Amino acid sequence: MTRREEILRAISAAATVHAESPTRARTSFDVIGAVAERNIPLLFRPLDKLWGAFISVNDQERGIVVTTKLGLPVQRFTVAHELGHLMLGHRMSLDKTIDFAGRHAPASRPQQEVAADTFAAELLAPKNLLVASARRHGWTRDKLHQPGNIYQLSLRLGISYQAACWGLATCKVLTRPEADRLRTSTVKELKRALAPAALIANPWADVWALTAADSDTFLEAGPDDLFAVRVDDHASAGYVWRLADANADTEVVEEQASELDQAYGARSARVLYLRFRTPGVHHLVLEHVRPWSRATLARIQIDIDGHGKECQGWARRTRTEALGHVA
Q1: Is 0.90 topped by the overall pTM?
Q2: What does 66-119 look like in DSSP terms, one character per residue?
Q3: What domains can be seen in the chain, in order of their start residue?
Q4: Tell me: the pLDDT tens digits for 163-182?
């Protein structure tokens, strides 16, 4: 089988898996759920020299192992890569690294690995999910040439910044040379453009630029991630945005106001910097209200899974379901 034929087979297999697993409110594909639905054992271990492995004793005894030493986006891509090996009927594979370029990988990369890379890229960054996020946030083709917007897209899709660049190349939003150039942007600098450095306590944490466009979505984030929520107050009419149903886990670490428009009745913009004190699934709700009358003009509500990367052992969901059966 030629490289092109293997890539086409991988694209088809990813489309099949994706069609069988609706995303609903999620902005990212539920790759852990896709593995669980196929009753494939998935284990996380602190592997020293491997990102992951697909283990196959025979057609009935197969499993996936992924390292705990990588962040959530890379873990997700690695899980998808190993699932690709399984879906494509490959033999056992021990993967020292993964190539986020997928079908755009160099000719020197082994054909079987290119196929698994392509499967992962097509599964986690398919055109429909990419277009959905772009439309929701008003990211036009030109705006998706800006590293800051590509970074925010990568967070919604649950993939690395580099993988998002290559995903845009696959969808022909970027040319291959543009993707190759943009992928070298430093994510650290993109974070600093969104929030004061003092607020980014963990260098591995991400900074999410949230707006009303994120309302009614389900996001996957890390426990130390920072959320920069931009809100526009209609102060002249007495309406201001405030955190509603706040609990002990939600912390407003800082608030910044942008320059005010001097025109009478103009709206004023603020950025609220939020984080969660503990890992878990959080329901973030902000309301645009008149404090004295409780009249509500608008509402933003976002569900955020802030557990972050998988830790040693079975996948978090598998452990939770097992405990539920015991109870």
Answers
A1: yes
A2: EESSS-HHHHHHHHHHHHHHHHTT---EEES---TTGGGS-TTS-HHHHHHHHH
A3: 3-124 (1.10.10.2910), 128-185 (no CATH), 201-305 (2.60.40.2020)
A4: 999 999 999 999 999 999 99
